[in-house]
Amino acid sequence: MAADEPLVLGIETSCDETGVGIVRGTTLLADAVASSVDTHARFGGVVPEIASRAHLEAMVPTIERALKEAGVSARDLDGIAVTSGPGLAGALLVGVSAAKAYAYALGKPLYGVNHLASHICVDQLEHGPLPEPTMALLVSGGHSSLLLAPDITSDVRPLGATIDDAAGEAFDKIARVLDLGFPGGPVIDRLAKEGDPAAIAFPRGLTGPRDAPYDFSFSGLKTSVARWIEAKRAAGEEVPVRDVAASFQEAVVDVLTRKAVRACKDEGVDHLMIGGGVAANSRLRALAQERCERAGIRLRVPRPKLCTDNGAMVAALGAEMVARNRLPSDLELSADSSLPVTEPHVPGAAHPHSHAHSHDHDHVHEISKDNLYS
Ligand code: KG4
Ligand code: ZN
After folding, report:
1. Which residues of the chain have pLDDT under 70?
2. Where are the residues of the annotated region Disordered (predicted)?
């Protein structure tokens, strides 16, 4: 770790995790996370107002914990990075406000960065600098996309995305139908290990010859699994939970890995990065490894703790912004719940004293679970 590499603190509050990470260049120094997931569990999903309140309470203690863990003083920081979007508007606002307050009080540059680009950049903390371009499959409760990133700080191109449910959302919904609790991914992953993935042939969405090659669809699969379970119950038969979990999971990871490997081949990229909460899935990791090896593609997947939402990923992208001399954000930075994936960060006006900026999006967007992520 070189002492001249940028020391950056990153704040993440786009959903239900209050994450604060500190990195020096591509080295992780601290990764403090306070989650309100238990508070949401009884509602079967994240409740935005509860998440915002929890961020507010956890913000300062989590920042202090991260600084202590890293053994650095806030005065030594070279920058403060924060997720400014996409995500839940009210939740983002807490992180953005905190970052602005710290940046202003300490006189440090502020970097409002994109949540999705951060999910990709975090792999630098585990496997070193990202190859350029990077092919990334991002799969979580809020997003499922295939992205090609020639430069993670300035050029991220969407190749495809889900046209309905996100992959993690499908795991959560099927877990609800099976009465397995929330979030559903980890428990389905665990039960699937004891089930037969070939027991039930569930549909593979958008894999026909005329379908968009890189887009995903999981709502048909979800309906098909729910109907299958209902039919069993209606017939008074026992639902083979482990086989259903394994067969459903296989349908999801089969499509994800098939399309990701195809995108690498089509674009001539010889490695694949997988990130987001669903990247913690053991079968996704195994099948991706198998298919990548067969295709001569190198697979990069960060450890599970770096795959789910965290502050270290935001710090990692912030450090890259500093290293590449990207323009910091203005102190007027707004949270943008639908920040496009094509904007890795929100640069300020080139002239810091000019007040003629064109913020056409307001702080508060209408909150609807359907338009949270672009
Ligand atoms: O990235 P993340 O922490 O938050 C979002 O931005 O959504 O992802 C959470 C999602 C949830 O839907 C959860 O069920 C899923 O990731 N997940 C998993 C696993 N662990 C978490 N899905 C499948 N298998 C897992 N092992
Ligand atoms: Zn995320």
Report:
1. 1-2, 350-374
2. 337-374
| The pLDDT of residue 132 | 96
Task: Give the atom of ligand 1 at the shortest distance from the alpha carbon of 308.
Answer: 3
- CA angle 285–16–22, rounded 5-degree value: 75
Q: Please name which ligand lies nearest the alpha carbon of 15.
A: 1
Q: What mean pLDDT, rounded, does the chain reach? A: 92
pLDDT tens by residue, 95-121: 999 999 999 999 999 999 999 999 999
Ligand lying closest to the C-alpha of residue 118: 2
- What six digits make up the tokens of 304? 């599970």
Side chain identity at residue 349, one-letter code: A
Determine the pLDDT at residue 278: 97
- Name residues contacting ligand 1 (CB within 6 A): 15, 140-142, 168, 171-172, 183-186, 189, 276-278, 280-281, 308-309
3-state secondary structure 191-245: HHCCCCCCCCCCCCCCCCCCCCCCCECCHHHHHHHHHHHHHHHHCCCCCCHHHHH
